[in-house]
Design brief:
Chain lengths: 64, 334
């Protein structure tokens, strides 16, 4: 995904999928994200794909 | 005369060397426990020496093996010593609460519920103790990782010589068949009183992916089952008929009959090795849970908090920490 497709994650967005090292996981509930976070504990950053108003965009979030 | 004196001296030296090798008590013994705190006992008539960890010759390195075709009785008997009772005591050594736990790795690594150990985290004068099956002595234990929303904690018992079970979360792990409705399960734990330590019950999976609210938390992906549990069973294991640890017993319905819940152990399965690795490094480190810095809400959480939810799929972003917002703006700008 090119840099043009980056957008700011905002409150109200819905995270549908989360991508780690080109592997995409579906996110259906809060626990899914907790599990994914546990899986990516050693990665410094992950890409989160969010869907807002039927538009897909991508942002990168650094784990702290 | 001089020769006799030399022989006498030689015998004395040999005696001293042999005495040391045969393991007579050494004052440094208590300081060699690898960053672990000293052993003590809840009951006053116990000699603390009895509760010292056993010699390394008998340390369990492999999980207890369950033969194919094992019955519920075989599994319960095989795993009985892997299940422990977890106590919280105050600074006067008075027991405040207790639950159950199950050893999941060599070295005394135990899984239990967060709500069993949470008082220790909120009050520094409280301590955690672990009683092994059939023993009246207790050992200090330490919380290594805990998560309230998952209701799972990883603790380490000072006595690392506890047989352990194999974790296999069949609820989410795609490598094994998922749990099925009416599949038999076995619960082991200490209900109501220590005299009932490691009671075993048998039941069936009666529901999957349930959710429940308790202590201002929403627990999701719960396994509903009918293997009877009571107060004190919290944190105790739920096994399938292959001997896999599939969940930790957490909740029970007061009003209904045979409605009990276990949290899946998938999250603990994911991080156990990392927690152990950090704990056993020479510069011992605590595991830090990664955070996205986002407050999230899903359908179930929204029902609990009465928040608006605009989609039944995905996770709703309620708010972002300012650090995350800065990072996101930086990413966009670059």
């Amino acid at each position: 995904m090119g840099s043009n497709s980056y957008s700011i994650l905002q409150s109200g967005d819905i995270i549908k999928k989360i991508s780690i090292n080109d592997i995409t996981y579906k996110v259906n509930c809060r626990n899914d994200l907790i599990y994914i976070l546990l899986m990516v504990q050693n990665n410094k950053s992950i890409t989160v794909t969010v869907q807002t108003n039927n538009k897909l965009s991508s942002v990168e979030i650094t784990l702290n | 005369m001089k020769k006799k004196y030399i022989i006498f001296l030689f015998i004395c030296v040999i005696s001293v060397v042999l005495t040391g090798c045969l393991g007579f008590p050494s004052t440094s013994k208590d300081t060699t426990t690898n960053n672990q705190t000293a052993t003590s006992s809840i009951t006053s008539n116990i000699n603390p020496q009895v509760a010292m960890p056993k010699s390394s010759n008998s340390i369990y390195k492999e999980p207890v093996k369950i033969e194919e075709g094992a019955t519920a009785s075989d599994i319960a008997n095989a795993y009985l010593d892997c299940v422990v009772t977890v106590f919280v005591v105050n600074s006067y050594d008075i027991e405040l609460s207790f639950g159950s736990g199950v050893c999941v790795y060599s070295g005394g690594y135990i899984l239990t519920n967060n709500h069993v150990v949470s008082d220790v985290l909120s009050n520094s004068s409280y301590e955690l103790r672990v009683c092994l099956n059939g023993e009246s002595t207790s050992y200090y234990a330490e919380v290594l990782w805990t998560d309230a929303s998952l209701d799972i904690a990883i603790i380490q018992c000072q006595n690392g010589n506890i047989p352990f079970v194999k974790i296999q979360d069949r609820l989410i792990d795609e490598t094994v068949p998922s749990l099925q409705l009416l599949e038999p399960v076995i619960a082991i734990g200490t209900p109501l009183d220590y005299s009932l330590q490691n009671s075993c019950t048998y039941g069936y999976v009666s529901g999957l992916n349930r959710y429940s609210t308790a202590d201002n938390n929403v627990y999701e992906h719960l396994i509903q089952h009918t293997a009877s549990i009571s107060k004190g069973n919290s944190g105790g294991p739920l096994f399938d008929m292959q001997g896999n640890l599939v969940g930790l017993n957490t909740l029970g319905s007061v009003e209904g009959n045979d409605i009990y819940f276990a949290v899946p152990v998938y999250s603990a399965q994911l991080i156990l090795q990392e927690v152990i690795k950090l704990n056993e490094q020479s510069t011992r480190q605590a595991y830090k849970m990664p955070q996205l810095g986002i407050t999230l809400c899903d359908e179930i959480m929204c029902m609990f908090y009465n928040e608006n939810y605009i989609d039944s799929q995905g996770v709703y972003v309620m708010s972002l920490q300012w650090v995350v917002i800065l990072i996101l703006y930086y990413k966009v700008a670059t």
